[in-house]
Amino acid sequence: MAKQRVLSGMQSSGKLHLGNLVGALQNWVHLQDRYDCYYFIADWHALTTGYTDPSALQESVRDLLVNFLAAGIDPDKSTIFIQSKMPEHAELHLLLSMVTPLGWLERVPSYKEKQQELKDRDLSTYGFLGYPLLQTADIIMYRAHYVPVGIDQVPHLEITREIVRRFNYLYKEIFPEPEALLTEFPKVPGVDGRKMSKSYDNAIYLSDTPKEVERKLKTMTTDPARVKRTDPGDPERSPVFQLHKIFSSKQEQGEVAEGCRTAGIGCIDCKKVLIKNIFIVMEPLWKKREELLRNPDQLQEIIRKGTDKAGKTAGETMGLVRDTMGLSAY
Question: pTM here?
Answer without folding.
Answer: 0.93
